[in-house]
Amino acid sequence: MLKKLIQLCLVMLMVLPVFAQQPVKQKPSHLDSIYNPNANAEAELATAIKKASVEKKHVLVQVGGNWCIWCKRLYKYVEDSTALRDYRDKNYVVYHLNYSKENQNLALLAKYGYPQRFGFPVLLVLDANGKLLHIQDTGQLESADSYDKRKLMSFFKNWSPAALKPDQYKPKS
Question: Within a domain: residue 31?
Fold first, then answer.
């Protein structure tokens, strides 16, 4: 009996380190799910446009993917800044449009001039009717290895509904 108990202890001592070395599975960060490759982007963007119309806001479309470190940085930078987040939310309905190998949303992007020529993320500003007002290269909103609060706030203010009178962005005949 003592021999079996010793054998059992030896086996446990050999097996325990194996379990101790197993990596702990971490819960995915919300930064890994900003974009939804399975979304019906056209329907969701239409909903965002309707909401913007009711709330008298513009639509801010951030085109990118969960694979994109700069997309995550932009999201986190704005969310972590009360001033940026509050101003954005007061003036824009935000939609994160997925662009990834799973779903590039090319048909929807084609409606807005296929704006990824700038790299990712790229920002689209739509009016409350869904008309494209501006395409923003987010590289111009950076400083060194991060985003620049002053540049982002300037962008938000310059393209807000209050900054644009309706006759300023009507197509010229």
Answer: no
